[in-house]
Amino acid sequence: MPLFSYTAAAEGGRAISGRESARNKRELARQLRKQGYVLTSAEVLGKNGERWWDRVSFGFFGGASLTDKLVFTRNLRVMVGAGIGLPRALSILAEQTESKPLGKALKQMQEEITKGDTFSSALAKRPALFSELFQAMIKVGEESGTLEEVLAQLELQLERSHDLHSKIQGALMYPAVVVTAMIGIGVLMLIVVVPELAKTFEDLGVQLPFTTRLIIGFGSFLTHLWYVALAGTLAFLLLLRFAVSTLWGKRLIDSFSLRAPLISGIVHKMNSAIIVRTLSSLIAAGVPLLQALDITSHTVKNRSFQESLEYAGEQVKKGARLSEALEPYGKLYPSLVIQMVKVGEETGQTSDILAKLASFFEEEVTNATKNLASIIEPVLMLIVGAVVGFFAISMVQPMYSILGGIK
Asked: Is 0.85 surpassed by the pTM of this model?
């Protein structure tokens, strides 16, 4: 949902300004009218309130990582529980954090809160750092006087998210290192070794097989036209990144990941874990179900799961139960999800049951990633062996031809 920067007219013609999430300007005007304001101008800051310069700043120049946010939330909970005022707590944490963008934001937030802003409104001005989930839960904590309890829920949410992402990254680290090393060694061989062998074959006047000529030609291209190869590689990566950022590119990747033999099970369980954990945290904090579904749909990355939550929100708005709204997506979610949501609705313990379900799926993802690592290792060895064998045969075959001619 876009975030708008707006100006509006209050009673007596007094002008006010602020930021508010809405689907469009018409809905924004309706929301402000309920608060007694008349919209005068509005500007979209970006999807989910994220401006392009926010993405550059926090994405490429050392933004706040998930670990930074987890440490911040944990320390803030302890300080709030100890009775330290929010402005002072933010000032202390601004000095302690290792993330410069987060430290700068905390100092600004301290000044804004000292001048009369609420914590949640200060967070809403920084959507690139603090997600909708974070903003909504803090707002509920402020309004209900349970900020410490809400921070504890957020800490658990961030901790579980950090663990989940760490396990996935750990499983992918080994193949990434092997593939990178294989590409690096291959390029080095093509630039250094192959040209020397090519000179030898040329001096001897031996007839080269097609595969040998192919490798020599590729090596010659990398040696003499390396700048073209570098520019082509960069152009390909930029094009790939652009394709992935488009709606059809995301749909294609998401659809593939849900059907790929080795990773589909992990993708289903990981997204289910994120969804039920987020819903559990929001419901436990007192966020209404419709708003919780909307926030969760922005938290999960897979487009198919996003659409399922958007559909569920529409059905719940019409009066349906969440378990009924999710039934059409029985192939997307593990059957246990819909069954346990139904039990939670019947017992009135939806938040607790979703939390237990999230822990179950997180454990399942952990086991699945361990199995994936054990499967990837032999597959990589076969690929490396095939590449090395192809290279060796292609370069050794002409030598056998030379030896055969000597006899």
From this structure: no
